[in-house]
């Protein structure tokens, strides 16, 4: 089976134990995570060959990170070395009415300083069936955006399926360009688009008439979601499938969760009532991993692929 390649930043995650706040904690639990790396780990757990591509410095923290990826059988042979540091994020898990909190320390990380030409994408993608990236990567720097565009163009040239999770984070776009300026050229090369209604509106100005997700009560309005999906396909005609995740937040420990997929028609998943959330961070990444697995494993059954993705997350 050909591999799935993902590209983006992986960071050191330092989390307060349990539901403690930072100010209460004398210890922090250390792990590694990042959207694209999380997708690679999910797929490896399902038996899909994976390769995670990033840029890491030559130091012991980076070696620790690479060793952690190897534990999950994620390919690390195309990680390029350089730069000064691994990005860090601090996590405080929410409880009931108190939301989770994330504090980033990722400025000038190794991948933020990446430049086009540093990764040989023809070599990386020659044995790949799928390439995945997220909107986090081009938000880091112009160099990261350019490297991402390089990868997408090579993937298109080689006939590799390209997917994206739009994953709009307004606080990351700090280098002088907005998401609406950078993202369209990248998404034009994508076959699969994952996002939510906020991503579509904030990045591309797409919003169906009279729709306000805050007043849906967590229920899927099929016509409204189909409108978002069809508008995205009109903007990006290469996209064969558009997927929207739907999360209803009752409190920090209780969410509803589902999704819709639009290809030839709109498919709706079962809705899950999740009353005891184990780890909110990375839920969308596990959905994406499940979606890629589902679309590879059930290429003629979009409903089954969608149901697998929702259940997997």
SSE run: EEEHEEHEEEHEHHEHEHHEEEEHH
CATH architecture call: 3-Layer(aba) Sandwich
Major sheet: size, sense and barrel closure?
Answer: 9 strands, mixed
CATH fold-type name? UDP-N-acetylmuramoyl-L-alanine:D-glutamate ligase
Low-confidence regions: none
What portion of residues belong to β-strands?
15-25%
Number of strands: 15
Q: What is the mean pLDDT?
A: 91
Number of helices: 10
Helices and strands, with pairings:
Elements (H helix, E strand, L loop, with lengths): L2 E5 L3 E5 L13 E5 L1 H11 L4 E4 L1 E2 L3 H12 L8 E2 L6 E5 L8 E5 L15 H5 L2 E7 L1 H5 L1 H17 L2 E5 L13 H9 L4 E4 L1 H8 L17 H14 L5 E11 L2 E9 L3 E3 L3 E3 L8 H15 L4 H11 L1
Parallel strand pairs: 1-4, 1-9, 2-7, 5-6, 9-10, 10-11, 11-12
Antiparallel strand pairs: 2-3, 7-8, 12-13, 13-14, 13-15
Helix pairs in contact: 1-9, 9-10
Description:
- The chain has 313 residues and is an alpha/beta fold.
- It has a single domain (3-312), classed as UDP-N-acetylmuramoyl-L-alanine:D-glutamate ligase (3-Layer(aba) Sandwich).
- The protein contains ten helices and 15 strands.
- It has helices at residues 35-45, 60-71, 121-125, 136-140, 142-158, 179-187, 197-204, 222-235, 283-297, 302-312; strands at 3-7, 11-15, 29-33, 50-53, 55-56, 80-81, 88-92, 101-105, 128-134, 161-165, 192-195, 241-251, 254-262, 266-268, 272-274.
- The strands form three sheets. Strands 1, 4, 9, 10, 11, 12, 13, 14 and 15 form a nine-stranded mixed β-sheet that branches.
- A hairpin with a 3-residue loop joins β13 and β14 (266-268).
- α1 packs across α9 and α9 (283-297) packs antiparallel against α10.
- The longest helix has 17 residues, at 142-158.
- The protein is globular.
């Amino acid at each position: 089976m050909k591999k799935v390649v993902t590209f983006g930043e992986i960071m050191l995650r330092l989390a307060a134990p349990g539901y403690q706040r930072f100010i209460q904690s004398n210890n922090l639990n250390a792990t590694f995570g990042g959207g694209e790396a999380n997708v690679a780990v999910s797929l490896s757990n399902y038996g899909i060959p994976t390769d995670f591509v990033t840029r890491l410095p030559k130091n012991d923290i980076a070696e620790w990170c690479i060793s952690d990826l190897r534990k999950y059988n994620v390919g690390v042979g195309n990680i390029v070395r350089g730069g000064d540091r691994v990005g860090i994020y601090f996590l405080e898990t929410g409880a009931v009415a108190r939301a989770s909190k994330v504090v980033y320390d990722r400025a000038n990380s190794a991948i933020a300083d990446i430049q086009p030409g540093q990764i040989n994408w023809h070599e990386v993608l020659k044995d790949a069936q799928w390439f995945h990236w997220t909107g986090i990567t081009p938000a880091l720097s112009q160099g990261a955006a350019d490297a991402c565009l390089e990868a997408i163009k090579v993937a298109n040239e080689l006939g590799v399926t390209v997917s994206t999770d739009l994953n709009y984070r307004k606080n990351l776009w700090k280098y002088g360009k907005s998401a609406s300026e950078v993202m369209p050229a990248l998404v034009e090369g994508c076959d699969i688009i994952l996002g939510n209604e906020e991503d579509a509106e904030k990045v591309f100005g797409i919003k169906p008439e009279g729709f306000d997700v805050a007043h849906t009560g967590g229920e899927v309005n099929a016509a409204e979601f189909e409108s978002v999906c069809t508008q995205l396909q009109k903007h990006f005609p290469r996209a064969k499938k558009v997927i929207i995740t739907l999360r209803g937040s009752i409190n920090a420990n209780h969410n509803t969760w589902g999704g819709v997929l639009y290809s030839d028609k709109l498919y709706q998943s079962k809705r899950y009532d999740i009353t005891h959330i184990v780890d909110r961070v990375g839920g969308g990444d596990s959905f994406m991993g499940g979606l890629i697995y589902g679309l590879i494993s059930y290429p003629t059954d979009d409903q089954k692929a969608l149901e697998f993705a929702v259940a997997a997350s």
